[in-house]
Each structure stands twice: as structure tokens, then as C-alpha cells.
């Protein structure tokens, strides 16, 4: 079998591949364009990349023998995972290899910011001895705000605590018990971080919610003299607004390892700011990290090609083929239930309970539980979470996960129920299959019977059970060109409280939803995306 190594990885990783006589290993000595790759991949069974080479739809379609793509790193946005999945190609990453390296870079940047080390270094290189210009600040007794307490954020917090810093963390999904164990304080909102912190460091994935999160409005709410760090993802900090905040002096300094556009253009105005420390995306650039991810990706490729074992996959659970075929319908249903509850639950949850009933009690449940968790935490974790690391991610948040096999007799032969708990508050949803495993349905929502197709746009509302309300909603959506695909209604009693659930072909406008909310008999209007 032929393995193509497209980007530089650790020599130890390459040696692991080359030691296997079953494998023919080709190592490219430079970056190749998409057109060049098309001529290299027709006989390839496995591909290894870092971040430089893009595995596009065309490349995948031109590789009929391809079985696996291994990414030596975390992000897989340079791999067309959807097309790979459609073509039966496993995509693997190395989710933990660069955690310490990125955390240490962040803390190095933090210290350099506090003591103006790069600026002093350049002054000395220029022949100067200008001590007064480089007076810094101590870290001890300063407040560090950490946005995102995943693997890397948690490691940064450990180092900050060791330096005597007060650590204030913003992570809506981190439990108080977990925060207390790490000796950090939880902020209820970003405003608390902005008002209290001397340093703020970002450790979140780039999502629609976090893109441009640190902008002029955010900087305006921060303490004058704050210092900003971003070694996570380019785009979270709006660079044009950071430029203005640094020039005005409101932000005293910043340190960036990632940028909105990479490589950073040579004429970027950021380069001219003396109070800005910049590195060229070095988060994983240590000997140890590169060795770790190189070895990890090589081992994963070998195990899959030669033994059929799957680990660190972003598009396939770690299962043998026969078991995977059996549980596959539940993986989809479970992820949809998790995604639904992520949009209904509060942010800071203590416990998630996944109950298997009827024939579902006979299944291999771990991959299904992982699928539920992945759906639930994906909005906060982005591409960094997969079936392999999702349990560790949940544990890091302090989210307890319980599996229950129920003997309760209900109307369905097989079913899956998920409840999310935050203290005494709870939201829940349950699903089953109608007719065949190709026809999933959500049949319980917060203990009410429903029938929801778990895909697309879901409209929810509570309303008083009164004549004409269904017609009113239908007419309103009709006027605004929103088509209703299906409808589910439930009430506690005639004239009492009702739950209305609609599958919609498109998302209603904000003004349409506002019009619905103005009805005094309607409450809790939501539109969810599955």
C-alpha cells in the first residue's frame, strides 16, 4: 500500500512508516499545487499532511484507492472532510500533540508583554542602553482573563496560578466545581473579564460566534492599559480594531501568533507597532510537538491500513466495520439530540444523562454516547472535538456523563433519551425510528410527546390552546414566504398550555419572529438548527 507524505513531519514518524514492509512511502520535498497532486494520488492508499497541503474535492475524486488522510495537527480545515466521508475516506487528526507547546508559547508571550523583552532586545541590538524606556509590570497579583478553558486554556491557567496571578475564566460550559479544582474564578459574562483583567488571552475555536469577538466595542469595555494575547485562531481578534486600540493607548500591548490572513502581508500596519509582539504561527513549532504529532499520525495511519483499527478519526467512530453498520443510525440520531439540547439548555451544565431503552440496550453504547456529546459540545468546541476526544473535553468542562440502560416499557421498541441538568434545571429530548432505521424521529421534548424530523430548521413555541392559533401561524409564515414542512402539536388539556413544533424549509426573519412574540398567548419562541 502506498502512503504519500505531503508536508514535513517528524523523521521518527516517517521512519515508523518506512519500517513497515507492507507500505511504500513517498515523501514530497516541497509543497505541491492541487494540479500537481492530481497526478500523484491515483495509486495512493494513505495521505499525511500538516497545514500546508489542501486535500480538496478534486484531489479526493482523483484518488480511487485512498482510504485514509492523516493530519499531523488538530485542525482539519485543509481537508474536505465532507467529500472524504462521502467517498469512505477516514480523516484522522492528532488532537493532543501540541497542547503543552501552545500553552507554553502563550505564557512566554505573556511574560514578554509584561517585561517588554522583545523591544528591549531590539534596542540592545541597535547599540542602545535605554533602561527607562522598558519599564514593565509584574505578573504577581495581576488578573489574567482566559477566554475558553479547554485543554490549552487550562494549561495556561496552571502556569498563571503558579506565578501568583488571579485567574478569571470565561467559559459558559465550565462547571464551578471544575473551576474551583483549577483554582480559577468563573466570570458569568465577558463584561466581567473586560472590567477586571490586566491581561486577556484567547483559547477558543473560530466559530460564527467567536469571529471578531474582540473588536472595538470589546476593547472599549476593557481596563485602560490591558494587554491582549491570541495564540488560538486568527480572526477572533479584529485586527483593524486592535490597531486603533493600540495606537490610542487604551490597549497597552498585544501579542499575536495567529492572524486573519496568513501569511501576514508584508505591508500590514500591524508590523509597525512597537507595542505589538508578533510570531509566525509558532504554537505547535517545538521539537516535542512536531515529534509527537508526527509519531501519532504515523501510528494511526499504520493501524488503520494494516489492522483496520480507527483512532483519532474526525468522521468515523472507533469501531470495527460490522459494529459500525449496526450503530450508525443511532450515531446520527444521538448527535441530533445533542445538538438540539445544546440550543435549548443553559450554558453551565453539571450532568448529561443518556438513557438507552428497548432494543437499544443491546447496542455498543460508547460510540453513541460520544455522538450525543459531540453534538452537544460542538457549538463551543468547533473542529477540535471529535468522537475520540469528546469525553475528555466534557470532563475538562466538569460535565458528568451518565449512561443508563432502561427496562421501562413504553410505546417504542427501541429508543434513546438525553437529559441535560444544571442544578435543579433540566431539558430533555428522546428519539426513536419510524418503520426503519433510515427514518429517525424526535418523539419527546421536555416530557411532552412530539413528532419532529431531526433535520433542518425547527420552530418551537409554547402557546395557549385556543382556536385559530395554528391558522394564524400558518398564514403569517405564508405571508413571509416561509414554508412549513411538517407540524407537531401537543397540549396538556383543552384550553390549557400547548407546544407547537414546526419543521421549516427556511429560517423566518427576525421581524417575523418578533411579530409572533407580540401575541400575548405565545411564549418561548425559538428557531433551532439541526
How would you sum up this structure, described in words?
This protein has four domains: 1-95 and 287-314, Rossmann fold (3-Layer(aba) Sandwich), CATH 3.40.50; 99-278, Rossmann fold; 317-454, 2-Layer Sandwich (60s Ribosomal Protein L30, Chain: A), CATH 3.30.1330.90; 456-530, Alpha-Beta Plaits (2-Layer Sandwich), CATH 3.30.70.260. The relative contact order is 0.09. The chain is an alpha/beta fold and 530 residues long. It is built from 17 helices and 22 strands. Helix 5 (99-115) crosses helix 7 (151-162) and helix 14 crosses helix 15 (390-396).
Q: Report the top-level CATH class of the largest domain.
A: Alpha Beta
Biggest sheet: strands, sense, closure? 7 strands, parallel
Number of β-strand runs = 22
Q: Please identify the structural class as seen in this structure.
A: alpha/beta
Number of folding domains? 4
Under CATH, the topology of the largest domain can be stated as Rossmann fold
Low-confidence stretches: none
Rounded mean pLDDT is 91
CATH architecture classification name of the largest domain: 3-Layer(aba) Sandwich
Helix percentage range: 25-40%
Radius of gyration: 26 Å
Percentage of residues in DSSP E strands: 15-25%
In the CATH hierarchy, what is the superfamily of the largest domain?
Answer: NAD(P)-binding Rossmann-like Domain
The separation of the N and C termini measures 39 Å
Instruction: Using the alpha-carbon principal axes, give the shape.
Output: globular
Number of helices: 17
| Major sheet: arrangement of strands | 8-7-6-9-10-11-12
